[in-house]
Write a structure and sequence with these properties.
Helices cover about 45% and strands about 15% of the residues. It is an alpha+beta fold. The strands form 6 sheets. The chain has a 9-stranded mixed sheet, with helices on both faces. Strands 9-12-11 form a 3-stranded mixed sheet, covered by helices on one side. It has a two-stranded antiparallel ribbon with strand order 1-4. It holds the Pfam family YqaJ.
């Protein structure tokens, strides 16, 4: 028969507790520890000596109390005991159960043996994952076993070295929890309608107000729906964007299913045309997404610089969180652009395949030898042209290669050129018009461009061939198949029989592939720009044609006798392309104003802007806004080598298709 001991664990006195009590002595003497008396009282609970857990508690209690007292938590232990003794403590309290999980975690020999026995804590982690996803787990856990993987054997992680806040289960374990909760896994932004109904159903007698904290929202970071829904209070209602996204997504998936269905089969021309239309729709939307990301990067970069400056100036204030968030936004936006351009490249290649064009270059940001293409016509030099033009005839100006001595002589004979028309007509302000006028009539030279301007001009000239290579190998095969590029010299704009303006287009796009002297079948004028902005917050490419180029483009279309122009803006990563249509009213104003100001009897600079200039300014803005954005295309680099050309009788150097 086992010997029994009787202890009163329900007595209100502290048991097995050492307390600090002042001796009956003079003031200032040190405190000493004395044991409380009458610890063992009448029996209210019985247990056997082989009740291991109870014996262990009895043996550990003095040590535990000393440790708790050493850290200043003794009063809380007393509160805990009193609450239990008075049956006031709720053992289903989630904090208590999470604390029990912590005890269980630190008591395991290795963390992989950790298990979760409480249904309440399982529900806690399950709901947290649904509401906040992986961020909730990462925030709650702390450092866990960071850094131990190289120092321990595989599968063993010592809990003694784990710096945790809570014993957080992995997402795999959370998925296996049987919580009896029928909660949908909501991943999109917006209201959690199910939870709203759940709260209302459990509190039918109460009323609730739905609100949110806008400062805590992270716009643009969801993977499928874009910005966080602000219930109609956002700048543009997100519902519209979401509907547009869903429409586009549905069309893309329908296209994907159709392409899989037709894989390996012979397609009719009607099917091909439908596929091309659908693929161009996807291409355009990818371009818009790239545009949004670039504009976001510009705004976020501006904000980042502002907060970094504030962080340096305002000592004591911490802007590190917002700085990190902005950096993350920029990083993710750049990743989206990179993925979009890769996808766009594949789509454009597919369109070119349907168009039966073999000119498309799949690689981007690589060199493209344009002289190997049979649809890229470069002008011969001036000496070579003499062999094909009669001695008694003047070489047509449009066949004189740009930036040659002959071209510069012809260009210098004009008071106004296409690239200077905006300034010459007062569209850049009266002061600049006066300065240009004085130089045009030989009264005063304008100051030389500064180093920054020279660098930008040199950058534009050097990269012009790259813009043309992108146009020829990316845009034409996918959007304008069976058209060829022709290099242009200088074209003359006339009023009656008088030559008044010289323009030098960056090329023309023609329907024919003939090495001819005369201009025929010109479909588009070509104007390319390679901006090198000194303002760091500008996007690398234009998403609207700057108004200062509109007059130049109009004059080029007039000189070439075509009704449309392809305007290309090149950067190292991508290029934007616009389609500009001729506006006869604007051309008439340009010609009349040029005649009156520069070829009239008046030898003095304008003293005020004319009525025509004001109307031209309005029309330039109108043309800029109405120009069609075709898309943003992956850029390539271009080169021209004589070795890949073949002899020709005409004025153009023709690419040898066999060497391409």
């Amino acid at each position: 028969m086992k010997r029994k001991r009787n202890y009163n664990y329900g007595n209100k006195k502290r048991q097995w507790v050492t307390k600090r009590r002042k001796k009956q002595s003079s003031e200032g003497e040190p405190m000493e520890e004395v044991e409380d008396e009458n610890i063992i009282t009448e029996a209210t609970h019985e247990y056997c000596e082989d009740d291991v857990e109870m014996n262990e508690i009895v043996n550990l209690l003095p040590i535990v109390i000393k440790e708790i007292a050493r850290f200043g938590f003794l009063q809380y232990l007393l509160m805990f005991f009193n609450l239990i003794a008075n049956k006031k403590f709720d053992f289903s309290n989630i904090c208590f159960l999470l604390f029990c999980d912590i005890l269980r975690f630190w008591s395991t020999p290795t963390t992989i043996l950790m298990r979760y026995p409480f249904k309440e804590t399982k529900q806690f982690w399950y709901i947290g994952k649904i509401l906040f996803h992986g961020r909730f787990q990462r925030f709650m856990t702390g450092y866990k076993n960071t850094g131990q993987s190289c120092d321990t054997s595989k599968g063993f992680y010592d809990p003694d070295n784990a710096l945790i806040n809570f014993a957080v289960p992995s997402h795999i374990h959370i998925e296996t929890f049987n919580t009896d909760l029928n909660l949908p896994d909501i991943k999109g932004p917006g209201k959690f309608d199910f939870m709203v109904k759940k709260v209302v159903s459990t509190n039918p007698s109460n009323s609730f107000a739905l609100t949110f904290d806008g400062k805590k929202l992270a716009p643009g970071l969801t993977t499928d729906s874009g910005d966080v829904d602000l219930l109609g209070y956002e700048e543009i209602p997100l519902k519209i964007k979401q509907d547009q996204f869903q429409t586009m997504y549905k069309q893309i998936m329908d296209l994907y299913d159709r392409l899989k269905h037709f894989e390996g089969s012979v397609l009719s021309q009607l099917d091909k045309n439908e596929f091309v239309t659908s693929l161009r729709y996807v291409s355009f939307n990818l371009s818009l997404a790239t545009k949004d990301m670039r504009q976001l990067i510009s705004k976020q970069t501006y904000a980042l610089d502002k907060f970094i400056l504030k962080d340096e100036k305002e000592i004591g204030k911490n802007y590190s969180y917002v700085i990190d968030v902005i950096k993350t936004n920029i990083y993710r936006a750049k990743a989206v652009i990179s993925d979009a351009l890769k996808a766009h490249n594949c789509i454009l290649n597919a369109i070119s395949h349907f168009n039966k064009s073999n000119e498309y270059v799949m690689d981007f940001c690589n060199k493209v030898d344009l002289s190997a293409s049979p649809s890229f016509f470069n002008l011969k030099d001036h000496n070579s042209l003499k062999e094909i033009i009669n001695e008694d005839e003047e070489t047509p100006t449009h066949l004189i290669k740009q930036r040659t001595k002959k071209w510069e002589e012809i260009r210098a004979a004009f008071k106004v050129t296409g690239s200077k028309a905006h300034q010459a007509l007062g569209l850049d302000g009266l002061k600049k018009q006066k300065a240009f006028f004085q130089e045009a009539i030989g009264q005063q030279r304008q100051p030389e461009p500064d180093d920054v301007q020279k660098k930008a001009m040199r950058y534009g000239t050097e990269n012009e061939i790259n813009a043309l290579a992108t146009l020829h190998s990316k845009v034409l095969p996918s959007y304008f198949p069976n058209l060829s590029y022709y290099e242009e010299g200088i074209r003359i704009v006339k009023t009656g029989s008088r030559n008044i303006i010289g323009v030098s287009p960056d090329g023309s796009i023609r329907a024919s592939q003939k090495n001819v002297i005369t201009s025929e079948n010109i479909t588009f004028a070509v104007e390319v720009k390679c901006p090198m902005s000194v303002y760091k917050y500008n996007t690398p490419v234009y998403y609207k044609i700057p108004e200062r180029y509109i007059c130049q483009v109009m004059l080029e279309m007039r000189a070439l006798g075509c009704k449309e122009c392809l305007f290309v803006c090149w950067s190292e990563e991508s290029s934007t392309v616009f389609r500009v249509r001729i506006k006869q009213r604007l051309i008439a104003l340009i010609l009349n104003e040029t005649m009156d100001v520069y070829y009239g009897d008046n030898k003095t600079a304008p003293s005020r802007l004319s009525v025509r200039t004001k109307e031209m300014k309005v029309l330039c803005k109108e043309v800029s806004e109405q120009s069609e954005f075709i898309g943003e295309f992956p850029s390539v680099y271009g080169t021209v080598t004589i070795e890949n050309s073949k002899p020709s009788a005409g004025p153009y150097v023709v690419g040898d298709e066999k060497k391409s």
